[in-house]
From TrEMBL:
It comes from Pelosinus propionicus DSM 13327. The keyword Nucleus does not apply. GO terms for biological process: methylation. This is Putative rRNA methylase. Gene3D superfamilies: Vaccinia Virus protein VP39. InterPro entries: MnmM_MeTrfase, SAM-dependent_MTases_sf. Keywords: Methyltransferase, Transferase. GO terms for molecular function: methyltransferase activity. It holds the Pfam family rRNA_methylase.
Length: 197
């Protein structure tokens, strides 16, 4: 039986976009599973930019990609995703965020709402028409609670004539199950119209 899994669901929803994307971002590389998914399913000439603040995460991602001989396709960046504009020029077609902390590592190194929102804002401003962003948020810990709240507020305020935003969660599960947000840019209005007043 196929069971729902939030991470797999995000990948399935993005699959068709990834197939045609040229510039893709894994905003939280972690153990590299999303980077691998992006590298495996994007065109041969696509470039994936994978960010993480932890050396361990970058090394884990590199190791995973090497196993599949896909490390040439992925640029691994040890930097906060909020500095994305210092690394990428051009329109972003697909971006994935899997927020929170690295599984089996120090929980104090977790994504923070200020830098997550800053990164999200920059990616929204650089998203191609038809481009998509997935965000998986975990509201069960203190930072995650604040982060999910900030992400949801920001996404709710996006103009619906430019962006479509969906949200999915397992509503009968206890212990704050993950929440998946999907953003699609429908039209090419000016960036300023996506900025909150
Ligand atoms: C839940 S893990 C990501 C899992 C990963 N997508 C995978 O497939 O294995 C979250 C990651 O975000 C990283 N992180 C925390 N703050 C960050 C920041 N400001 N910029 C980029 N990565 C950050 C953590 O170091 C951690 O590795």
């Amino acid at each position: 039986m196929q069971t729902f899994n939030t991470i797999k669901l995000a990948q399935q929803l993005l699959f068709a976009k990834v197939n045609k994307a040229k510039i893709l971002v894994d905003a939280t590389a972690g153990n590299g599973k999303d980077s691998l998914f992006l590298a495996q399913n994007s065109p041969i000439d696509a470039i994936i930019w994978s960010f993480d603040v932890q050396q361990t995460a970058i090394l884990n991602t590199k190791e995973l990609l090497s196993k599949y001989s896909l490390d040439d396709k992925v640029k691994l960046i040890i930097d906060s995703h909020e500095n994305i504009d210092q690394h990428i020029n051009g329109k972003i077609d697909v971006a994935m965020f899997n927020l929170g902390y690295l599984p089996n590592a120090q929980h104090q190194i977790t994504t923070q709402y200020q830098s997550t929102i800053a990164a999200l804002q920059k990616i929204l401003g650089s998203l191609s028409i038809g481009g998509v962003i997935s965000i998986i948020a975990y509201s069960g810990h203190q930072e995650g609670y604040l982060e999910n709240k900030a992400v949801q507020e920001r996404l709710r305020s996006l103009p619906s004539n430019i962006f479509t935003v969906g949200c999915w969660s397992m509503i009968n599960h206890s212990n704050n199950p993950p929440i998946l947000y999907i953003v699609e840019k429908m039209r090419g209005e000016a960036y300023e119209s996506a900025t909150p007043h």
